[in-house]
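thread: overnight batch results

M.L. [08:02]
morning all. the overnight job finished for the chain we discussed friday. pasting input first so we're all looking at the same thing
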Amino acid sequence: MACITWRNILSLPTNFAMIQYKKVAFYTLGCKLNFSETSTIARLFEDAGYAKVDFDDTPDIYIINTCSVTENADKKCKQLVKKALKINPDAFVCIVGCFAQLKPVEISKIPGVAMVLGANEKFNLVEHIEKLDAKKEADAIVAFENIKETKTFVPAFSMGDRTRSFLKVQDGCDYFCTFCTIPLARGKSRNATIEETTEEARKIAQTDIKEVVLTGVNIGDFGQGGHENFEGLIRSLDKVEGIDRYRISSIEPNLLSNSIIHFSLEESKRFVPHFHIPLQSGSNRVLKTMRRKYERELYAERVAYIKSLRPDCCIGVDVIVGFPGETDEEFMETINFLKELDISYLHVFTYSERANTSAMKLGTAVPMEKRKERSKMLHILSDKKKRAFYEQNVGTVRTVLFEGDEENGMMFGFTENYIKIKMPHRSDWVNTFQRVKLTEIDRDQVMKAESIQETVTIE
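M.L. [08:03]
and the structure it wrote out:
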């Protein structure tokens, strides 16, 4: 296996990619942050003269942007490599992303992988490929540095979806929760300035995208305690003309201050009534063992304040089940806590053991069958919460941003408070705002609606 650095790559022959490789395909695993970065890397390839094609369109190069939050993401990476080589056995397969930073040598041994790039190198991917010899190396090329050396923030935002864009406002994390590998994969918390980030939003505003989702690893930590902070950022973004809606993808409860909530729900022109706030557990003992920076009481206060301002606000919650040492009683604490909270849906994660994390040493492993049982219980609770939230909104009038997908003659979109709507397809409604009255929840748990006026311009 050739294990080389960026400086070594620069010294390789230059007659590789532009002669032989012209079509490139991308596949993204994981979070919205990964999607924003994949889209940015794809634009770098297009600027260099490559044609971006679909995964099944026999590309010459495959770029797989990986996640490593769960073991399933690792397995999915291996499956995608096999699928790519089945489509084109001569393809050049490159792996980037969190899994690539955490386990570069392991990935390099996957049959068919030609290159593995760590966190510092993924945005230099075009240069890496174009400095290679025309003949694919027998062993994978691996280029990465210790994550402690990853200090640069690279802006990114997604394109290609006419309706919305994921805007990366922050990267890395300083929290080191005991179950999480992200600090090891992405490094310390960092960001651009407010003005630089706002300039990225202005670029998006020049397109026909209507909605921007703010994303990062720990976006509430924007500024890392300096003179700039997340509230200052969203106040600046709110002034950008040409973007109609902003959503905050996920924010830690201890960083979601009342002033941020008040601005988003009461003062802002463009931020919608929708928060996603990780909880992870309803047991204070488990939260402490996870090394979370809050207790359940603070979480409940945040939810109560949001609902006091906007009872119709959608609140999503992340929960982990089966954390080492989690007893039946502590799991029921989580269940009962969530039942009492006025929330709208759950994202349920089954705990999986991750290398180089301390969680495995902190308690007795919960049997996998019990983890699955607890996960099923929380999924049922999530369905009930979501339906109750939808039912509360039946009969209300909302503004829906409709998307381009069509299924069985229907089109879909989301209200400002994140209710999924379906209506008969109209091509002239794609990527437009429509005022609709929510009428009933269909069998597929999507809300049906009726139009009350034509295209809406958001003031």
